[in-house]
Amino acid sequence: MNDRLLADALAGVARFVTGAQVTWIAAPAPQQTVFFANHTSHLDFVTLWASLPRRLRSRTRPVAAQDYWEHGMRRKLAVDVFNAILVPRREHGLADADPSVAVKTIERIAREMGDAYSLIIFPEGTRGDGNDVAHFKSGLYHLAQHKPGVQLVPAYIENLNRILPKGEFLPVPFISRITFGQPIFVDAAESKNAFLDRARGAVCGLKQR
Amino acid sequence: MTIYGLHVDPALLAACAGILVLLTIATVIGFILRASVNTPSASATIANLNQRIYAWWVMCLVFGLTLAVGPTGSLVLFGLVSFLALREYITLVETRRADHKTLFWTFFLFTPLQYVLLSIKWLGFFIVIPVYGFLFIPAAMALAGDTQSFLDRAAKIQWGLMLCVYCISYAPALLVLDIHGYGPDAKLLLFLVIVGQLSDVLQYVWGKLIGRHKIAPNVSPNKTWEGFIGGTLSATAIGTGLWWLTPFSLPAAAAISFMITLLGFGGGLVMSAIKRDRGIKDYGNLIRGHGGMLDRMDSMIFAAPVFFHVVRFFYGL
Fold first, then answer.
1. How far apart are CA B168 and CA B189, in angstroms?
2. Number of domains observed in the structure of chain A
3. pLDDT value at position B82?
């Protein structure tokens, strides 16, 4: 209960600090969703989470890197407050890790989602420079295969990297922007790479101007 | 005059009552218009008009409350206005990764410092940003080591500080200005805000009613000669009628009101030119119907410093 309150308070702080302007191209639906977005800053998942409607927030869990969020205060924040699913980082991409571990990770994420929870994932796997969106790791594809009925909603995050770029600890209060797009699904006939390109295109297409 | 043991300036009270009456009339007109339009484009205009009127209620309430608190209230309010305006401005201009620390000091050192100096009535606030800020920004940027578009970047950050912090801070600076037989007084700030903002509103209203000939179609397609002349003249007339709020004589109130309206027009034009250059319509969506903080403050940015110096030169101790 206290964690719930803390989470709401943090959502308010995140919205205030980042001045996030949120746009929904398709209205947010109550059904189970995987939100996937470009990754440019440590503020990304808190801000994206905070910009969801309150009723969706309590049922949306971020997928976060175990190596970063595993210890101390960070763990408390990630696991207790945001109910994050921690995963070993290399396995975001199946190609460059031991396939059996990666498959287990995807299975675990799918299991933890159950039929109730939505997810926030950053398929680039690591933070970019805010200008280019890197190629997506294949986790999103495999997750979609495990959960074929779940809608995949792309989101484009703008300016959070300017607020707190890699390697800085003092924030500059730019106004950030989060745009949520139309949901996509995996086509039965679609190859992995074709789907990942389409998913990445869906995120990039939301960039304004 | 004393109400519940509180000393209240009757002139200030009269001005606030006048604003309340004006807002009520505008609200009623908004309701009537909403009921009487039937084309989609007209109802979009009226919906925006009603949003603006509603936002005016909120802005007047906030401004009135901070005036009631005293100079500290206004300094905090305008400090926050500067911060939000600078945030809109910096988001809009292109900055580079190397500007991060310079921008941090811009937001968290120079912006609060300007208002702290005002609060202790140290008139050195005139020089902190134009001298020390002017030298600090390029020095900090040179230390960061990125020389690409150096001059552009330094100039843009300095412009942001001048427009959003330095110029805007002249409005609450009126509260620390000593004047013969008048003293530092919130009424002077109220006068500037009423005339400046009414000039914006009346230019909009005249423009919507009879506007035909565009003044600067490339800069601001909504500004027309009819709106400009009708707005500045009617705002000047109202400002003249409010001479009793100020230490000015009737003719002086007319001249100074006219000056405020002209400067406000200049500010609106310049801030529009920046928006056109960056390819946007509004600076933000902070104030519903109006756009961002900078969309509302554009006229004040130009009017406040000149008004302050004119009053200081002719009426100051």
1. 12
2. 1
3. 97
Per-residue pLDDT reduced to its tens digit, B292-303: 899 999 999 999
Structure tokens at A150: 């779940």
CB B51 within 8 A of CB B288: yes
The helix/strand/coil state of A141 is: helix
Cross-strand pairs, A22 = A178
- Report CA B124 to chain centroid distance, whole Å: 22
A32: which residues sit within 8 A by CB, 6+ positions away? A113, A115, A116, A117, A118, A147, A149, A150, A151
Residue A134 has pLDDT above 90, yes or no: no
Q: Is the pLDDT of residue B5 over 70?
A: no
What secondary structure letter does DSSP report for B243?
Answer: G
pLDDT of residue A94: 42
The rounded radius of gyration (Å) of the Cα atoms in chain A is 16
Cα three-residue angle A12-A16-A21, rounded to 5 degrees: 105
Domain boundaries, chain B: 1-69, 71-173, 177-317
CA B200 to chain centre: 10
Q: How many CB atoms lie within 10 A of CB B316?
A: 14
CA distance B114 to B125: 6
Chain A: closest CA distance from residue B49 (Å)? 23
**Distance in Å, alpha carbon of A31 to nearest chain B alpha carbon:** 29
> CATH code at A126?
3.40.1130.10
**Residue A82, in any domain of the structure:** yes
CA proximity to A199, closest of A149, A127, A138: A138
Mention every residue, 6+ apart, whose C-beta is less than 8 A from residue B70.
Answer: none
**Residue of chain B nearest A177, judged by CA positions:** B91
Q: What one-character DSSP code corresponds to residue B6?
A: E
Query: Could B285 and A21 be called an inter-chain contact, meaning their C-beta atoms sit closer than 8 Å?
Result: yes
ipTM tops the 0.85 cut:
no
CA B143/CA A5 separation, integer angstroms: 43
- Which residues of chain A make contact with B100, given a CB cutoff of 8 A? 165, 168, 170, 172
Q: How many helices (H) and strands (E) does chain A have?
A: 9, 7
Q: Is A16 on the interface with B (CB under 8 A)?
A: no
State the amino acid at position A75 in one-letter form: R
Identify the three-state secondary structure at position B311.
helix
DSSP A95-128: TTS-HHHHHHHHHHHHHHHTTT-EEEE-TT-S--
Domain region containing A66: 2-204
**Residue A209 maps to a domain:** no
The strand pairing partners of A24, in sequence order, are A180
CA distance B53 to B47: 10
